[in-house]
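User: Reviewer 2 asked us to show a designed sequence for the structure in our supplementary figure. I'm pasting the structure tokens here. Could you produce the per-position amino acids so we can include them in the response letter?
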């Protein structure tokens, strides 16, 4: 199934020190990077492990029995994650998404959700607290997650045909169990449920229309994602990408006429479309063919506390070291953590997707399962 696997160069050790304080980067909720982009979203990877081996994300040939996942002591504890979340909120973050790996594999995740749901934004509003999951454990967990304070879920599902889906998840996992997870999430009030489908040419692009038809009229929102060159192990090629514009054309022709609608908020990555007959909404995420770096307000915190400024980064800033301290240095307080986040963000200038080219393709990048999808 996976025809091109590239062996992994372990970039998890590529750590950048947090830059020294500069006056302009105090944590006052108004930090902007060097391109004027504010900090609004934080993705937190709570585990680098996953029970799926999606061929485009964690190919079996690389993430096998010998692969060294992070040992438990390296992971941020729930208390550490919550403290760091506070430091990001102090810099303007309003939305937190838990991801991984498969976040529902992290033991007692509902306890973390409870802790995070007690935090409020700088405006005193509740956080927009969301989770991205492969849905495999959602049917039994949705209610507890909602009770703990989770507000929304996004479920990944790459097709409705069992053969296609099993070939992609590569662990023989059936579509029906994911659909049961989606139903349970909707019943638990975690809607509107978003359903992410990564589209890879020649692999599952013939599932696009079936997916749209299946979820039309349910209130769930399917988002078609261009296959991206994240990480270094999935053998990405431009030829594998189905441009979102082609997907919209196909849906408009073969499902029902569509009309473009405004984003929900500035910096939303999905381009939104609704069916003219009022039967629902779909989205496309064109991270390859129409880069949205200029409006990217998102930071990523890895499972072990590295701050990444871009999904395509090759190194992260070591916040865990600040938090825990070292042999000779004590850990810092919350105000210093918030200032550190401001320092790092204010230096940010990356725009990988806008300058993506064949030349940037082979550059090593950290894996999505580690940094958080
Ligand atoms: N395990 C969870 C899941 O399956 O949703 C969360 C982690 S997963 C890395 C997050 C999302 O990233 C999924 O929707 C997955 O399909 C997407 N993803 C992974 N590799 C990708 C790639 N190369 N291109 C586009 N999307 C990708």
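Assistant: Here is a per-position design you can include in the supplement:
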């Amino acid at each position: 199934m996976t025809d091109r696997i590239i062996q992994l160069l372990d970039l998890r050790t590529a750590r950048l020190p947090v830059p020294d304080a500069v006056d302009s980067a105090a944590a006052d909720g108004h930090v902007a990077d060097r391109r004027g982009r504010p900090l609004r979203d934080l993705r937190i990877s709570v585990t680098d492990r996953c029970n799926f081996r999606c061929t485009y994300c964690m190919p079996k040939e690389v993430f096998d029995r010998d692969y060294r996942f992070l040992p438990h002591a390296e992971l941020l504890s729930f208390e550490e994650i919550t403290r760091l979340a506070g430091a990001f909120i102090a810099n303007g973050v309003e939305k937190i998404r838990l991801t991984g790996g498969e976040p529902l594999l992290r033991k007692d995740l509902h306890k973390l959700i409870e802790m995070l749901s007690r935090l409020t934004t700088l405006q005193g509003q509740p956080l927009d607290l969301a989770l991205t999951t492969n849905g495999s454990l959602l049917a039994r967990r949705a209610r507890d997650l909602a009770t703990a304070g989770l507000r929304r879920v996004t479920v990944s599902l790459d097709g409705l045909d069992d053969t296609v889906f099993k070939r992609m998840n590569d662990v023989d996992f059936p579509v029906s169990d994911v659909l049961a997870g989606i139903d349970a999430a909707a019943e638990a009030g975690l809607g509107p449920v978003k359903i992410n489908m990564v589209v890879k040419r020649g692999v599952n692009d013939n599932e696009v229309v079936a997916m749209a038809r299946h979820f039309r009229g349910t209130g769930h929102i399917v988002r078609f994602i261009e296959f991206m060159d994240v990480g270094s192990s999935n053998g990405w090629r431009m030829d594998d990408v189905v441009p979102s514009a082609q997907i919209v054309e196909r849906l408009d022709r073969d499902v029902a006429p569509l009309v473009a609608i405004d984003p929900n908020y500035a910096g939303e990555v999905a381009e939104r479309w609704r069916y003219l007959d009022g039967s629902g909404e779909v989205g496309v995420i064109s991270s390859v063919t129409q880069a949205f770096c200029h409006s990217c307000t998102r930071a990523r915190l890895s499972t072990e506390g590295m701050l990444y400024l871009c999904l395509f980064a090759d190194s992260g800033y070591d916040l865990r070291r600040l938090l825990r301290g070292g042999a000779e240095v004590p850990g810092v307080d919350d105000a210093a953590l918030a200032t550190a986040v401001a320092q790092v963000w204010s230096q940010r200038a990356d725009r990988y997707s806008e300058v993506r080219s064949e030349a940037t393709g082979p550059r090593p990048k950290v894996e999505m399962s580690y940094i958080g999808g």
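For the response letter, you might also mention the following. The two ends are 22 Å apart (CA to CA). Residues 161 and 175 are 7 Å apart (CA to CA).
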